[in-house]
């Protein structure tokens, strides 16, 4: 009976050879991940450190493969489905021995390997070159969390207002706490939706509207208004921290002329920054 062949080898032998290579590659991959975690938890820290273990990620393997083709890591991330707000990359060349790869990583990349926020790792190897990507996967708040996050953000803003501080070159005294405003929250929601829908990160809406015009549309009768926006940040704590550290945003937060606030976020995995925030300040007439 005739036997089918591929390039001169029987099909069965070809399949067995491919399976054997896949098992070898998977084993080598796992060994290198183990070595990375040894560096993360012992060799790079001179002892035990409470860090999450780096988990192998098929999504980051795809990023590492794309990165191996050239260009920047950000470009490689953009060509895959992996979503993250924080990532780093490492390359080792001219060796196929894991012990040498590990030594080079220890000599050059301990600061990356011990970054607490990273929890996943992806690898790609070609001949004597290995590309490694570590990241924290993007976790977006859900719509069901909105009320809790809005309350927390108002709490954080009022904590910031309770202490005198400098916003850049301008000094501000402690200010009275703000109260939540439903119309301002509605105005914030409309602008966050507009930014997410159109990949548009500006105070001016895509229809040309200003923060004051959006507050008026939402039924807010105001004597003064202002707006903060943010994108790509996933927690209330990080958003407020970023605003307080930015002089202009900080001045809005500390402004004694404001008595009310509304805030909203909108998530969209198809948008550039995935999450958009709008914070509206006002004082009614």
What can you tell me about this protein's structure?
The chain has helices at residues 11-43, 58-68, 73-78, 98-108, 110-113, 146-161, 182-198, 211-217, 236-245, 247-254, and strands spanning 5-6, 9-10, 55-56, 84-93, 120-126, 129-137, 165-167, 170-172, 179-180, 222-231, 260-267, 275-284. It is of the alpha+beta class and 285 residues long. A hairpin with a 7-residue loop joins strand 11 (260-267) and strand 12. Helix 7 crosses helix 8. The longest helix is centred in the N-terminal third of the chain and has 33 residues, at 11-43. It is elongated and about 70 Å long.
**Average of per-residue pLDDT values:** 89
> How are the strands of the biggest sheet laid out side by side?
3-5-6-4
Largest sheet: 4 strands, mixed
Helix content: 40-55%
Instruction: Determine the strand fraction and express it as a percent band.
Output: 15-25%
- Low-pLDDT ranges: 1-9, 16-25
Shape: elongated
Distance separating the two termini: 94 Å
- Output the helix-strand order: EEHEHHEHHEEHEEEHHEHHEE
Provide the gyration radius in Å: 26 Å
Helical stretch tally = 10
The number of E-state strands comes to: 12
Main structural class? alpha+beta
Describe this structure in a few short sentences:
The chain contains ten helices and twelve strands.
Overview features:
alpha+beta; elongated; 12 strands; about 45% helix; 4-stranded mixed β-sheet
